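Lab manual, section 2.4: Encoding a predicted structure.

Procedure: take the sequence of the chain (304 residues), apply the prediction step described in section 2.3, and record the output as structure tokens. A sample record is shown.
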Amino acid sequence: MGGKSGEREVSLKTGCNFMESLKRSGCTVASFDIDDQLIRNLQEYQAELVFLALHGKYGEDGTIQGMLEMMGLPYTGSGVLASALAMDKMMSKRIFAYENIPTPKGVCIHIRDLEKEDRGLIKERTLQKTGWPVVIKPLLEGSSLGVTIVRDPDDFWKAVEKAFQYDQIVLVEQFISGVEITVGVLGNNEPRALPVIEIVPVLGGFYDYESKYTIGGSDHIIPARIPQEVQELASKLAIHAHIVLGCRGYSRTDLIVDKEGVPFVLEVNTLPGMTETSLVPDAARAAGISFDELLLEIGRLALE
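Recorded output:
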């Protein structure tokens, strides 16, 4: 838990929730932060299973998963490749397109491009592919850190510079107006979808960091106020995305449903937040699964 990404505080909250829940279930638990003593701590503790409460870089991108694989320790969530693919929004977008999973158009801008090309040409070429308006976000970051919806062309580079504070590559993505929904998925070889949640931000215009992690910052509406057939399609897309990326255990797929009722997959979270304001625990609760039961199921799936 903890880690070195911009989502450290969220990770600590998730980790504390894990600790309390597993203790209630009778498990012997210890918590470790990401530091130069981590390998030694895990070896000395002789862990039988590692619950990953990390988010963002170095935790959700396959890095820690690779270390645990080398140590021969089982861990919760997806493996190295699936974690890396899901973290890289452009790579996952390419896989979605290949698998005929609807996803917004996107173009990447690397910080070194600004040294080689005229900014005007970069902007023109990018918007020719994405259309207008756009969402600008760091390529390898989560929790909506550094994300801006850009409706005014004059704000384009300001939003790009903001995203560059979090990553050297930013994703410029087609903005689709519609209903924000999310679908949790549980399982390995035969994954199943949890109830669809509609997300209504209370504090801002979209589901940003503050809306996600402030109590009362957003409303989670279950069932989502979209037609049943759209909910079913969104669930199928979430399961499909979980499978094609190679996810294991659990994931959460974020989607937007446009005005025509078409759901578009935005991204897949391989280690979704598990705080008191998080979506997967809410969806599980709606399915009759308590938080303690959810964690035990995630642990069981890790050992399959």
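Check your result against the sample. The two ends are 23 Å apart (CA to CA).
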